Every structure is written in structure tokens, then in C-alpha cells.
Amino acid sequence: MIQTYIVDAFTSTAFKGNPAGVCVLNTPISETIMHAIAKELGFSETAFVCPLSNSTERYTIRFFSPKMEIPLCGHATLAASKVIFSLHESLTTLTFKTFSGLELSVEMHNGLIKMVFPIYNTVPQNAPKLLLSALGITEITNSRYNNETKILLLEIADSDVLQLLQPNFEQLKAAHTGINGVLVTAVSKQKHFDFESRYFWPWSGTNEDPVTGGTHTFLAKYWSLKLRKKRLKSYQCSERTGQMIVEIRNETQMTIEGEACIVLKGDFLL
Question: How would you class 30 by CB atoms within 10 Å of its CB: exposed for 0-12, middle for 13-18, buried for 19 or more?
């Protein structure tokens, strides 16, 4: 049996935010089984955590979408943290080691789960006209690319337009072959938020990810430089919606803070 949870991340309300599967392992299992479980659950990502040397504070973590293994996932890390903190209530800090070798530090801070993530840069890259057409975008303010995540970032001028986007996902997938996803972002018109975003990734996951922590590894620096702020509030204006606080710590590290809600627990009978 594999202890398994469904957790809504980046929200305090059930059925909002981004749902993730979390499987707590006693010993490692094969990639084939992890991929099969991720397909069975059907969420954008499922996290698989396994203790290192019988520790309650250090774990390996791997992320699988229904299509492939994902190198880094913010909302599934938050979901896994929520599960571990609920299983070991005396804990206040955790460390996850990813399959790619990253070490992710996590702490419970003022009722929020705070995760330390690397900061990634973006470089200019043109957006194909067919891709913009598939998204339903007529004009962009900026187009950049993050190499670590293979995500194209598009800034547009109006967050109202962002919220109303209805991409043609078949055309979108055919419009570009070299990316894992496209992130569309804009300055927020809401007084409680600094910027908004939506993330579309039919190439490597589901059509749209409800709330995406991983994109903030480059979004945080992007908007920090533009808005001249180190601490920013982010709103992902998908149908489910979600929010988080991001903060630049130094040249190489940032933090993502958010809440999560466990909505289901059970066992895979394998």
C-alpha cells in the first residue's frame, strides 16, 4: 500500500488552488509505477516523497505529470510539505532533494508554508505569430524565455484580457515544438496583488495549470525588477484561482509562501 493524499495548494479553501497528488513512500518505487499513479490520479502533478535515512526532516521528492517527469514543481512541493507537516506535527522545517539534485528548504512560518527556491533568469525570445493567435493575443509587451524550465514568458498590458483568454489548445501545441509551456502575465489591477499570470502547457502536462509555483522561479525576478519590489503578491487568475507571496532573498534564492488544504487521503493498493 502507498499512503496517498489529494491536496489543494496555494489556497486555504477546498476545491480552489491547484490540486496535487502526494504519495508518501517507505522505500523507493520504480519510475514506471510513479508514472502510472500520476496518470491514474490525473492531476497536473503528483509528488512522490521518500525519507532519507529514516529521517522525518529530509526527503527525496519527484514530480510526475500524466505525460512525463517534471524537474521542479512548486505547488506539489507545497502539497507534499502540508502532508509531512500534518504527519509530524512537531516539525517546523523540512528539506526535499529533487531528482535533479536541487535541495529545497521548507518551513512553517506564521501559518504559511515558506519554500526556498532557486532564482532563474529569462532571455529575450520571439513569440511565433501562430502561437499568439492560438492564445487569442493580439499584442504583447514583452517576450522572454527561461531555459531551466523551457517556458516562454509573455507579458501583456491588461490583466482583464489575461483573465478572459480562451486558447485553442490544439493550435497552440502545433505552434511551437521547443517549449514545455507558455506563461502569460500582466500587472494586476487588484489592490491586494502586484501581478497576475496564467500558465498553459499542453506540450508536457494538462492544458492549463491552475496555480503554478515553478513559474515563479523566474516570474519573481522578472516582476521584482520591473516593479522595484522584493516582496510581491501573485494571483493566478485561472478558473480555480490561487495566490502566493514571493520574495527575493539574494541573487540566487527566493521564497514562495502559501497555504494548502488536504481534501482526501487513502491508500493505493499495489
Answer: exposed
